[in-house]
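Hello, quick one for you while I still have it in my head. Could you read through the record and tell me how the tokens relate to the sequence? No rush at all, and the record is pasted right below.
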Amino acid sequence: MDIKANLESLKKSFVNSECKLIAVSKTKPIEDLKKAYEAGIRDFGENKVQEIQAKQPEMPADTRWHMIGHLQSNKVKYIAPYVYLIHGVDSFKLLKEINKQGKKIDRVIPVLLQIHIAEEESKFGFDRQELEEMISSSEFSEISHVHVKGLMGMATFTEDETQIRKEFKSLKQLFESLKNKALPSFVQMEELSMGMSGDYQIAQEEGSTMVRIGSAIFGARNYS
């Protein structure tokens, strides 16, 4: 597996060269992460807290850890001190727990709000009404140790590019509409995390600032 060559060809295929690449390293051995690091990657995405915990001490200090999977509230405390960005904040309960853990260690934790855009039930995320209700609540304005940097969404797992594009477009529209709203100071719409190995080019065309790619860099995932 030539990780460096994979990264070079992947970067050439980017529709938007400014879009950030998160190398999805879940299930991959530390040797693979080190090869990607040597090839210039600093942003690594994991979907299990235990895996970030195991890998974090093995990697250089300037590695940026992205929690991209579904995060359980009781696991937040383990990654709160060093996680660079939590992509999948899919409930107010989770946001409040991240705030609580940030407060304990006096750290403002960067997050993205996950929006449910796919036409399938298996995906997590806020629907628009839940998002509106949360943002306009007085409890939301009391958040002190979280920095909401933008939105994240996952398209339906389908070959239908029209469907995928429509879902990414709807997330971008929501992102832009939030930019024009009067939001608390800890909320800024800077990042739009959408697009994975199968649909990252469509996501970039629709305005993604951050793509999460694993198999195109590290090969097929290890299911253990």
About this structure: The two ends are 19 Å apart (CA to CA).
